[in-house]
Amino acid sequence: MTASKTKPVTILRVWAIVFLFIALKAVGNLSLAWGMKHFPQVMSANPIPYIEAMFNPFVALGVLALILALLTRMALLSLADLSYVLPVTAIGYVIAAFMGKTFLSETVSGQRWLGTVLIFVGAALVGSTSHSTTSVQIE
Amino acid sequence: MKWILVTVMVLATVLSDLLQSFEMKRAGEQSVGARGLMRLLGEIARRRFLILAIGCMAVSFFSFMALVQTEPLSFAVPASAASFVLETVLAKLVLRERISARRAAGALIVLCGVVLVGG
């Protein structure tokens, strides 16, 4: 089933879930990054600081939002094909760069923007072909 | 150090995906109702590769946590897309899938993007 073949109400629902997923992922990544950058201990191979970091409110909010994003993506996959979900959610890479620049005052060079846009285009291409790899080609 | 974390994150993600895909195909079709979820939890507890897949997912997430602590978010998230490249290569080599020209081109474009983002 693809979103384009379903009833208008379902298409609206699919887009609402797509929007929710992208928003949860963006907020989750931002909150996690903010919390981790303000966490005093530097991470290493020792697992204890990772557990301690989970108790930081921003890290906890980030983890919660990312878990909700994962569940939202599962719900999305029950309504639409992966070949539809992967390309429409690939915009998340561009949004992450935008969030970093806007809220974390990161310097995003022209080269990094170009790289991010290429990743978005490439991920959309990889995703949009996932169901065609099993088709038989007629010579 | 950042490339070590990216490598660990990507390898753990890909390994987790491969193990999940392999074990869930052996476990058969699952439903998402209350009974289906209980059955799924039972499958996870019984199947070693699924537990290993969850372990890999945790390693991937902890690597991402360490990465965003020292590196910009505008690097960490796009860099995680390198998993597309490795998954495409492994789909060809391990799973013997037929990779379309479009998918190969997509993976190559992602690779160029990751190199540019990291440069």
- End-to-end C-alpha gap of chain B: 14 Å
Number of helices of chain B: 6
Q: How many strands of chain B?
A: 0
Major sheet description of chain A: none
Count of alpha/pi helices of chain A: 6
Largest sheet of chain B: none
Shape of chain B: globular
Q: What share of residues are in beta strands of chain B?
A: under 5%
State the separation between the terminal residues of chain A, measured CA to CA. 28 Å
Strand percentage of chain A, roughly?
under 5%
The helix content of chain A, as a percent range, equals over 70%
Strand runs of chain A, count: 0
Structure, briefly:
With 139 residues, chain A is mainly alpha-helical.
Walk me through what this model shows.
- The complex is a heterodimer of chains A (139) and B (119).
- Chain A is mainly α.
- Helix content of chain A is 71%, strand content 0%.
- Chain A is built from six helices and no strands.
- The two termini of chain A are 28 Å apart.
- By secondary structure, chain B is mainly α.
- Chains A and B meet through helix 1, helix 3, helix 5 and helix 6 of A and helix 3, helix 4 and helix 6 of B.
Chain-wise SSE layout:
The complex is a heterodimer of chains A (139) and B (119).
Chain A: H1 8-37, H2 48-53, H3 57-79, H4 82-89, H5 92-103, H6 110-128
Helix pairs in contact in A: 1-3, 1-5, 4-6, 5-6
Chain B: H1 2-27, H2 34-46, H3 48-70, H4 73-79, H5 82-93, H6 101-118
Helix pairs in contact in B: 1-3, 1-5, 2-3, 4-6, 5-6
